[in-house]
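Fold it.
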Amino acid sequence: MSAVLLSLAGIFAGLSLLAFGGGSSLLPEIQRQLVDVHHWMTAEDFIALYALAQAAPGPNMMVIPLLGWRIAGVPGALVVSVAVFTPAAVLTGATLMVWRRLRDSPWRRIVQAAVVPISVGLVASSAALITLSADQTWVLTVISVIGALVHLRTRIHPLWILAVGAVFGLTGIGQL
C-alpha cells in the first residue's frame, strides 16, 4: 500500500505543476497514468468518478480525492489531495509575488497573451479525452457533439443539456 501511495504522490505532485488552464487540463494525463500506465482502474471507472464529481456540489476538481479514494481508500484521497494542491499553491504564491513586483514590465503582457491559448488547448484536450473515453458508440458521439453545439450556440443552462443526455442514457439509445 505504501508503494501505491508514494506513486500517487509522485504522479499528482508532478502534474500539479503542469495545471495551466486549471485542474481540468490535467485530466488527460491523470487518466493516462491511472488507467493506461498503472492499470489502477478502467476508463469506465475514471469516467464514472469524473461524472460523479461534476454532479456533486463544490469545486470541479473534486474528482482528485475520488480517484485517490478509489485506488487506496481514505489514505489515497488524502495523499492525492495534498500532492496535487500543495505544489501548485506554493508555486502560485511565489509567482504572484514576482508578478506583482514586475507589473510594469513589457514582457508580462507577452507572457499573459501566450498563456491563454495554451490554457484553452489543454482544457479542450480534456474535453476531447472525456468524450472519447465515454462515447463507445456512434450514437453517443453524435449526442455529445449535439450537446456541445447546443451549449456553444445557445444560452441554455448546461444542467439542462446534461439532463437531456441522462434521459438518452436511461432510454438505452446509446447501445445502438
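Residues 2-104 form one domain.
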